[in-house]
Amino acid sequence: MAALQEKLLKDLEQEGYPARIISATHLKDIEQEIASLFDSGIAQRSLYQEVLDHWKYDYASECPEAKSLIIVAMPQPIIKMRLSWQGQPHEIIIPPTYNFKMDRLVIDLINKVLEPEGYRIVRAAVPQKLMAVHSGLSEYGRNNVSYIPGFGSYYRLLTFVSDIPCTHDNWQAVKTMQACDNCHACIKSCPTQAINPERFIINIDRCLTFWNESDTIPDWVDRGSHNALIGCLRCQKVCPQNARHEQVVIMNQLFSEEELTLILDDTEIDKLPEQLVNTLKEHNLDYLYRERLLARNLRLLLDKDERMACSR
Ligand code: B12
Ligand code: SF4
Ligand code: SF4
Q: Which residues lie with the beta carbon below 6 Å from any ligand 2 atom?
């Protein structure tokens, strides 16, 4: 059995996906830890309600013989879209981790190893960062994002419950990277002071990502602080631990000016030309479009570029 676990970890690693397999009993540990965090009042339950409603620690119906948790990190590049709008060039950033269509690659790889042996996986809705750190896969950065030695933080986490037995369990106390001891670069770089020097958990309602993933952005958020089509890259980009692990994929002129006009007008998706819908889907932007975040966030970045050009 240990051989099957090792083969799975090796196959994942060969594809560039570091992973850990730990006992499914830790679902209970995580449940308790999250409950006591919110009971203590350190983190405000109302701000996390969406994830708290979604998290699940009992998989008896989907995986009755659940024995292990498989935690996988999938490194992703920064996407730089080069666009021309009203004759001016713009560079629009999409941070790593937003391409969840790539999850299929990891799921297919795990199934390829486990299915022939009669085992299955079920996607786990859990606090994955905390799980990854306890499993020893990653360590916290002061910016509250998790880091893997030799990979930095530019990866997407995926967690699965499985009936494959756990032969080498590991569960360790959460820790911060040693590199953070004498560094405050992320705190200084945060445009909205979301990283709190006094306590570890960030002030999530100060985080740009919290707002530009939401329907409304409050007035106190400086329009000039937006730096990505979705989310924010500042506290990771400035981190010395990411310096050697940054990969950038450049996409030239993904959309014509005519297509950008349709996008910025928030045209109903079924009225968009088929080719444009396909481009949105291919680049995993259709979900942002459907949630009506694409036009608003893109406009914020284009307007910011324009203001900067005028002030030069
Ligand atoms: C909710 C959420 C958000 C919220 C809240 C973020 C937050 N820090 O909680 C918002 C919208 C703000 C957000 C933003 C981002 N997110 Co987010 N987010 C999530 C989500 C859905 C849950 C995160 C979570 O567990 N929060 C709950 C809090 C309580 O967890 P925690 O911070 O880990 O809390 C523990 C620690 O603080 C620890 N602790 C407490 N005190 C101390 C003291 C010390 C010394 C130590 C060491 C530890 C410690 O104990 C706490 C638990 O008890 C996960 C996906 C998932 N299902 O897990 C993605 C996830 C965490 N996000 C991710 C990313 C990439 C981001 C962004 C970088 C996105 C972007 N580019 O814009 C930003 C980064 C913001 C930041 N600095 O944290 C990735 C992280 C990947 C990685 N490398 O770690 C995840 C895992 C998504 C994914 N599938 O990959 N996110
Ligand atoms: S910028 Fe410095 S303090 Fe922040 S996570 Fe990176 S190493 Fe740690
Ligand atoms: S993602 Fe941006 S806003 Fe959020 S903590 Fe990091 S730097 Fe601050």
A: 141-143, 177, 179-180, 183-186, 238-241
Here the CATH number for the domain that contains residue 53 is 3.40.109
How far does residue 231's CA lie from ligand 2's centre (Å)? 18
Q: Would you say residue 69 lies in a domain?
A: yes
Centre of ligand 3 from the C-alpha of residue 38, in Å = 22
Q: Compute, in angstroms, the gap from residue 143 CA to the centroid of ligand 1.
A: 9
Within the chain, where are the H helices? Answer: 2-14, 26-39, 49-54, 103-114, 128-134, 185-189, 208-212, 234-237, 257-264, 274-282, 286-290, 294-311
Do 93 and 233 meet the contact criterion of CB atoms below 8 Å apart? yes
Q: How far apart are CA 183 and CA 192, in angstroms?
A: 19
Mutate to test the pocket of ligand 2, among 143, 146, 181 (most ligand atoms within 8 A of CB): 143
pLDDT digits (tens, 9 = 90+) for 168-226: 999 999 999 999 999 999 999 999 999 999 889 999 999 999 999 999 999 999 999 99
Whole-prediction pTM value? 0.96
- pLDDT above 70: residue 309: yes
Q: What's the domain count of the chain? A: 1
Q: Give the mean pLDDT of 125-154.
A: 97
In terms of residue numbers, what domain contains 94?
2-178
DSSP letter (8 states) at residue 164: S
For residue 102, which amino acid is it? M
Ligand nearest to the CA of 212: 1
pLDDT score of 138: 98
| Ligand 2 atom with minimal separation from the 235 CA | 1
Residues with CB under 6 A from ligand 3: 143, 189-192, 194-195, 202, 207-209, 232, 234-235
Q: Are 120 and 114 in contact (CB under 8 A)?
A: yes
